[in-house]
Write a structure and sequence with these properties.
This protein has 234 residues and is of the alpha+beta class. The protein folds into two domains: 130 residues, no CATH class; 86 residues, no CATH class. 34% of the residues lie in helices and 20% in strands. The chain is built from four helices and eleven strands. Strands 4-10-7-6-5 form a five-stranded antiparallel sheet, with no helix packed on it. A two-stranded antiparallel sheet has the order 1-2. It has a two-stranded antiparallel ribbon with strand order 3-11. The protein is elongated, with a radius of gyration of 30 Å. The protein starts with 9 loop residues before the first helix and ends with a helix.
Length: 234
Amino acid sequence: MSVKVQITGLENAISTAANVLRQIPYATANAMTRTAKEAVDAGRQEVAAHFTVRKTWIAGRVKIIKYARTGNLTTVVGIDPRVQGAPLLLGYFEEGESGVKDPAHGSGIAIPLTSGPARPDFASPVITAFRYLNLRLTQGKGRRGTYVVPGIGVFERLAPGGRVWSKSKKKMVTVDSSETALVYLFRPRAPLKTRMQLKQVMERKWAERFPEIVSEEFQREVMKRAEHIGAKLK
């Protein structure tokens, strides 16, 4: 007694399986990009939760720095430090990256005083006319009635009779002819302490979402391939 078994269509099955397997790099790259975008969104929310973001482009520095490709399944997300002018300080506030802000030029740092002429409130950017360079300080004097007290800061002579907000009295008061306002406070350096856990937040988002997203992308690629094969067989 003997049993004969014959399998037909094996070549087609192997070919189909090979075609499906070839979609894995595409599915993986797509999944990595989708997950990276979600990680970036989570990172930007982390920045907004710990800082008063006066300019939207700052949070936009948290981005996908390198995209995954089928030939190189590597994605890099983080803080892109490439900005014009002074280096971006955002990364120094990350856990384990704290440091000290040293002067970019000169012997100290000019810090705009909140509720002063340069920055009326903490959420506001420095008023253009009162930006340090725009004051054109030369030999201790500058525009808008400003002058320098070495080692202390930059002051503005206030016009007598005007009205300004008094922090101590918590109301508007009339300016005396001898009154001045502190515009910038001089400091030799500024410590940058840990304020956020950006890396931890983005890594957690990746771990939560990537398995589900890569499964979705692989199923999508398989369905696309099956539809293509089905169309060829008709």
